[in-house]
Predict the structure of Serine protease.
Amino acid sequence: MWYRRIRQTAVRRAGARGARALVSGCVLAALGLAAGPAPGALAAPAPMSGAATDASAVPVAPETTAHTVTLVTGERVTLRADGSVVVAPRPGAEADYVTRRLDNDVFVIPLTALPYLGRTLDPALFNVSALAEAGVTTTPVRVEAAEGATAPPSGHAFGAALARQIGAEAAKGSVGEDPLFGGVTSVAPAVATDGLPETPRPSVRAYHTVKVTVLGTDGKPLPGTTSFALANADDAALYQEPFLDAVDGETRVEVPAGHYTAMVSAPAFDSAGEPAGVRMATAEFTVPDSGTGTEAVLDLRKATERVTFSTPRPAEEHQLILHYLRQDAKGAVAVNGGVGVSGGSPVQVQPSGRPVTTGDLRFNVYTHRKAPADAATPYSYDLKLANPVGTIAKSQHYKVTARQLATVRTNYHSDTPGRAQEVARLMYLPYETSGEALSEPFKTPARRTEYVGGSAGASYADWLKAGERRFVSQEQPLVPGRTTTVDWLRGPLVPGFTEPARGAAADGTWYCSACRKGDALTFSLGTATVTDSAGHHVLAVPSDITSSHFAVVSGDTTLYEGDGVPGGVLTVPPEQAPYTVVYDQTRTNGDFRQSLTTHTEWTFASGHSGGQTVPDNWTCVSEAGEYEGPAECSALPVVVPHYRLDAGLDGTSPAGDGHLVVGFGHVPGVVAPPAVTKARVEVSFDDGERWTAASITALGKGRFRADWTTPDSAAGRDASLRVTGTDAGGNAVTQTVKSAFTVAAGESEAASES
């Protein structure tokens, strides 16, 4: 028995120019693969420092789904591997920001930082891709200042002080002109980042001076420092700068001849330092190859159209995000940016007189809106709407009808009363490879009706933060007129396998987490992954797993076992043989009470795979230790349970009649799996000391109902579950979950607790 080192070959979503692969920094004794990322979301990891060099101990390919970093200004940004971002505000403030994207770098810049960007604040402070790659969770800074001046600590204090200064400057009408914090001259990240890559300048081309003027709403050059983007629309490789500074409304740049596109987002601020509105203006102009100077104007007076919405039911705007994507004549990204505001701040854009003639323009708007506070039942709207190709529409009022909407009846479960959670919905149009959202805080348990609408081809994925754990759903298509019910964090939360979303794009890459390619056997649960009853899975970082043990056994031989290992890739004999995989997991987490300890055993048979059962867009690990295509890759007949426990939103079930519906299936990719014909469910009310077998009723299609009687003496205590399912081929799973649910306190206990 021996282990192959996997060669780390990059795999990306088709056409994506999103974030870099992120490394969790975990080195394991076997080769564990990331289990079930969203299709296309994974890229193979970069080499990890400190990796073991022993042939039997190789570095893990970590879960690369997301990394969260706190910016110098206090905002928390979660960056997913496809480049999508979720922004959470610093405490006591709104999360208003702009984004700029350049190749694999994603910048998230709070509006309060814009007046100082490139002058005092290094743009690298907001390069969340580079910060994530550096492995930081908070942004360390290096400060230069005049004698006696200092900067507040990075994070909330820095952001609050910056807002106070901008508020004071706004009252004087001179935002960005005063010295920062009374004499700070430079703030830069104190970690190695790529900063802002310089645009390559072909030496054979002549360069011409362009004067760019940014006019304010009064028609005069905008005072202070204003950051804008400029790119060549014929070929962005010739010139592309996402951060140019107009000081007191003017700057000069040297560029080669050609067609050019520019975009600026400029905020106004109130006396508290909060954005009081944003205007976005654009310019298209030509630089002739004549040697004469060219002048271009970004005129904020032309940003006349406020983005507004009407919905079937009254709803208040919680967030508004604009996405501006300008492509060059070769189809490459020239300018890729957006504006995100919360709390109903007015946003006005400059409409197009006609479609762009060089390259392409895509502009869309996203809004999250909530029911008024006095609504009888809570509801929300998430809308993603595209403008006509090549233009920013003359009217920016979006009227949405009920026929355009899907209805999602959402239950947010919480086994801890009043748990603070955040939720965000990332929406995508067909031409987008990443998304943006602001997180919305709320208390759980809770119920809400969520209406989702968008232009043709829209899809969405959800993100939920509970305590410090971050859970995600798979990306799924938006189907107007469809009504579904979704449960978040409905227990038990157990180790398992994620699945591609129904209707997922065929060009997305999916890593097979339980498969056989030739004689390379892969079995991976992912790094720190647990799933809820709806298949939402937790991200790897930060992990709350305090201990785990993984073992693979065939007959009387233990092929591998180790601690802290979520899976592995083993080279096994070609003959058909039985295998048992055992995984124990213990989590320590003050935000969750239930399902913290699990024991799972999978038994299955496997032999040499010479055929393909998995879809063509899947990636499997070969005997040579490489991520390869799906040829000769077949999914293992691994049985997996799917729970529907009869418990309330708070994870409690009353004494008396109790039941559970459990469905058994197989891991994704199995073709014509054997039917699951046997099931056994046991319940324990004394932490697993004694078990009571439930009565089982077969419901068909691998589903079984288990019924038992919960004694009154168990009131107020936790109950454990042990579930077994076996298919007609003898493949089986047994999963034990301690504290799977809580027996509700009786009337006397409830009275004494109150």
Notes: The first helix runs from residue 128 to 133. The first strand starts at residue 66 and ends at 70.
